[in-house]
Structures are given as C-alpha cells and as structure tokens.
UniProtKB/TrEMBL annotation:
Keywords: Oxidoreductase
Record's protein name: FAD-binding oxidoreductase
Organism name: Mesorhizobium ciceri
Domain FAD dependent oxidoreductase span(s) in chain numbering: 9-396
UniProt key word Oxidoreductase: yes
Length: 416
C-alpha cells in the first residue's frame, strides 16, 4: 500500500477550472496539490471552441429545444443527439432536462447563469495578468450567424432575455454582417454580435501558461487517478491506484468524471457526459476575424493560430465509446457549407463536457462535509467561467464566501 501524503488543499482535476482555482489559492498563500490522471489542461479545456462567452446565459434546455426534442434526438445529424445504446442510462437525466426546459425553469437557469457571467470578464482580466496570457487573447467579439429568417425569428426570446439581463449585443443586418466578416460567403444572413466577447488563439498554450504560473507559485502537480474519497474527522482521504493523499480540504474539479467522487462525499449529482468534437483545418491566412456560430449548425468556427477550429454540437453518451464518425462528418459538412474550399482536416478530437440538466455548474460545499468543495458541471462554459469559479471557491475556503451568491449552484438543489 502506498504511503499517505498530506497537503492542505487537494484539487482533483487539472483542467481549466482546477488550474484557475489552484492559481487563486496559491495567491492566497495556500498549499495546493493538483491531481489528474492526464496531462493538465488536455481534456475539454484544450478542445473547446476557444470563446470566453460572457453572453452565453441561455441554458441548453429551453422551450424551443423541448418542442423540437423528439426530432432532434431521432436525427443522428442534428446538433443535439444521443448514443442510443446509452438511452437507459440517460433516461433519468433526460426527464430532468425536459423539466428544466419549461419556461419558468429556463428563465431561472438563465438568470443564474447571467449573474455568474456578469463577473466572468473581470475575473478573466485578473487571471490574464497573473498568468501572462495577454498575447493569447483576441478582443474582437463573437458573431451568431442566422442563415435562415426562421432561425432569427426563433431566437427573439433569447435576445430579449439577454437584453433584460444587460448583456451587450447588437443585431446586424446582412450588410453589417458582411462588413464585419468579409470572408463569409455572400448571403442574406442576419447576425447578433457580442462585442465584449474574447477568444483565445491557442487553448493548449493557455493551459500550459496556467500550469506554468501555478507551478512557479509553489503548487504541486501529481499524475494519478483518484477513485476513492472518504471524509474523516481531521480531513479527507483520497485514494486511487498506487496513491493515498490526506488533505485538509478537497476541491472536486474533475469535470465529466466528478459524479462518483461527489457521491462519495454525500451528494447525488445528475451529471452526464456531453461528448464534444472538433476538427481543425490548416489555413495560410485567417478565414474569419472572430468566432462565428452558424446557429442552425450548432457549432463554432474559430480562427486560431494557423488554423480554423470547428467545434461544438451535443452528443450525450458517456465516457467509454469511441469517437462517432457521423459527428465528425457532420462538422466537416457544415464547415464546407461556409467555406467550400477547405482542405482535408488536419486533426480531429473527442473530449467530454460535464453536463447538468439545468446547465448550471455545481459550486460550493458538499452537503456531507464543508471540507469538500464542488467546482464542476460547467458544460459549454468551462473556459469562460473558470476564473470566477476559482474566485468563488477561494473565497469560500477563506471564509469570505457569500452563501446567497452560491445558492443557485449548490449541490442541494437536486435533492437527495
């Protein structure tokens, strides 16, 4: 049996949320150990669309999605799909998701996310300075592209809700869309422009910089798999193959793999896995000036360093199955609708997003013990919400937390 290590704070999960939390805690003078079975920042934190989307308060589940859900789930080429062999496992989650897609729940979920997103950019600006990330950011907004008038009309409710929350958005005529993105094919597409949005030019480099900043400030990193969590009177015992760690406080930030550890802490969280995909195409010059989301296709086209990344859609279906070639083909076909002359993809990727029925992350203390802090379930917003989540976790551990601020994200909202 491995000898037990001891540490003040152990963070299980070294994705962007774990890295940002470690950076915030070491700034508070805490002793921190990051634990992950894989290279830090190599999962969904690497493979995302690269957008810091402070505007993205609309949950995945809405009345429009609920009305279209049978069609979406039966069409394997829709932006929202599931792996049918996983249907029995997914059924309880889908029931919760449908309830959270009703009008009152949708508004409550959007309001909660908007409150968290309101502080996302200031928290990011703080992290940019601490980790030396300025050269990795592009501050020129994000564009939703509505290629069909029916989609533009269907988006009116979301636009109105964002406006009510004070989110900065500009509705664009086709002429203004063409002026903003001259590389797009000439169409009659309308647009919604989010001028405050930021995107990163290389998510992998951002993760490396964060890791470097965390390590330089004294945090330790351990490559190990944590499968066991036991709350004890004087701390929390973590265990896994060949590893035993005793921590005064544990932060669960393991993304899509957080559910089992949360359950051992005393919290049954209806966390499921969205299988996220991306393709990348090498480009001699940028095809776009900013991330563009053709809403009918359900993915983002993001210009990155020397390449175009095509990332998005939703596929429910767990952590085990291999990549679904139909989803990759869907991204490829969709990208060629916008840029027909793209060459062959230079790379492809499958990763796992932690998805909750109400699209809200779980942030706050476990019901089983205040020594266990949850920081997972960010869905499509992990990159965006990592720094503000880190700030909330550090404030909670430091005794500065506001319980009312964390109430919408508490584990207890799901019941026993």
């Amino acid at each position: 049996m491995a000898a037990s290590e001891t540490v003040e704070i152990a963070i299980v999960g070294a994705g962007v949320v774990g890295l940002a939390t470690a950076l915030r805690l070491v700034a508070d003078g805490r002793e921190v150990l990051l634990i992950d079975p894989n290279e830090p920042g190599s999962g969904a934190s690497f493979g995302n669309a690269g957008t810091i989307a402070e505007y993205a308060c609309m949950p995945v589940g809405t009345p429009a999605v609920l009305r279209a859900l049978p069609k979406l789930l039966l069409d394997s080429d829709s932006p929202f799909s599931l792996r049918w062999p996983a249907l029995l496992q997914l059924a309880p989650w889908l029931v919760r998701f449908m309830r959270q897609s009703l009008p009152a729940a949708t508004r409550a979920n959007a309001l909660a996310l908007a409150g968290l997103l309101a502080d996302a950019l200031p928290a990011w600006e703080d992290m940019v300075g601490e980790a030396g990330l300025e050269d990795q950011l592009r501050r020129n907004g994000c564009l939703y592209l509505y290629r069909h008038l029916s989609d533009f009309a269907a988006g009116a409710g979301g636009r109105a809700m964002r406006a009510g929350f004070g989110i900065h958005q500009e509705v664009l005529t086709p002429e203004k869309v063409a002026a903003l993105e001259p590389g797009l094919p000439a169409t009659a597409a309308h647009g919604v422009y989010f001028p405050d949005s930021i995107n990163v030019t290389d998510p992998a480099m951002v993760m490396r910089r964060l890791l470097g900043a965390v390590s330089a400030r004294g945090a330790s990193v351990k490559q190990a798999e944590i499968t066991g969590l036991q709350v004890e009177a004087d701390g929390v015992q973590l265990s896994g193959p060949g590893v035993r760690i005793k921590a005064g406080t544990v932060v669960i930030a393991a993304g899509a793999r957080s559910r089992a550890l949360a359950a051992q802490a005393g919290d049954r969280i209806p966390l499921e896995t969205e299988r996220g995909y991306h393709l990348e195409f090498q480009t001699d010059a940028p095809l776009l000036n900013r991330p563009v989301c053709p809403v009918d296709l359900g993915f983002y086209l993001t210009p990155m360093a020397g390449r175009l990344r095509v990332a998005g859609t939703v596929e429910l279906g767990g952590l085990v199955a291999p990549p679904n070639p139909r989803r990759l083909a869907l991204l490829d076909r969709g990208a060629r609708q916008i840029f027909p002359r793209l060459g062959s993809p230079a790379s492809q990727w499958l990763g796992f997003r932690p998805s909750l029925p109400d699209s809200r992350p779980v942030i706050g203390a476990s019901r089983g013990s205040s020594r266990v802090i949850h920081a997972f379930g960010h869905g499509h917003l992990g990159l965006t919400l990592a720094p503000i989540t880190a700030r909330l976790v550090a404030d909670l551990i430091g005794g500065r937390g506001d319980p009312a601020r964390l109430a919408p994200f508490a584990a207890g909202r799901f019941g026993r």
